[in-house]
Amino acid sequence: FIEFLKTKLQQEFNGRCQVDGYGNLICKIPPKDSSASEPLMLAAHADTVKPGKGVKPVVRNGVIYSSGDTVLGADCKGGIAEILEAVMSASKHPPLEIVITREEEIGFIGAKNLDYSLISAKRGVLVDMDALDAIVIGGPSHMLIDIEITGKGAHSGMEPEKGISAIKAASLAIATLKDGRIDPETTANFDLIQCRNCFK
After folding, report:
1. Stated pTM of the model
2. 33, 38, 47, 183: the active-site residue
3. DSSP string spanning 48-86?
4. Residue 104 annotated as catalytic
5. Are the beta carbons of 5 and 46 closer than 8 angstroms?
6. Are residues 34 and 100 in the same domain?
7. Which terminus of the chain faces fewer neighbouring Cβ atoms within 10 Å, N or C?
8. What is the tens place of the pLDDT at every residue in 66-96?
């Protein structure tokens, strides 16, 4: 799909396109009837949730649906279609930098690995919202925190008082932290506990 978009943007919009080391697409489109020199970035992501292969679009009452066996993939291929339509139909526009990332659905991995040295735009529009005719200035994000707690081994029969239980320390820490809904915009949870050296 990325290669398809690259070819389309090169052939139809005279784009200078390249795929970065992670597989994200960056295409620079020249201005159209504009003397503006500062580029504007238009961004979306190419991946969808599963199942997303073999999509069969169906039009019912003027609305596009999937046939039911897969997702439609409008998140975010609908955004990509909006970008293509905007570039195609705009009577004028500044230089554009179209950025299409991979692996958004599994944690913004493509954006985190995007080669930002290939982008010069200071302003941009992320086209990934279900709100029609609206501009959204913020969106959900997430933060992962890895905490490592190291205990101290001791003989359980001879000198247990010299030991430090990493499991107990972790449970005490977790018990003092809030989880669930923290405030109207924030949630938190503890999703994985691993014991690295339990059986050594």
Report:
1. 0.70
2. 47
3. -PSS-SS--EEEETTEEEE-SSS---HHHHHHHHHHHHH
4. yes
5. yes
6. yes
7. C
8. 888 888 877 888 889 999 999 999 999 999 9
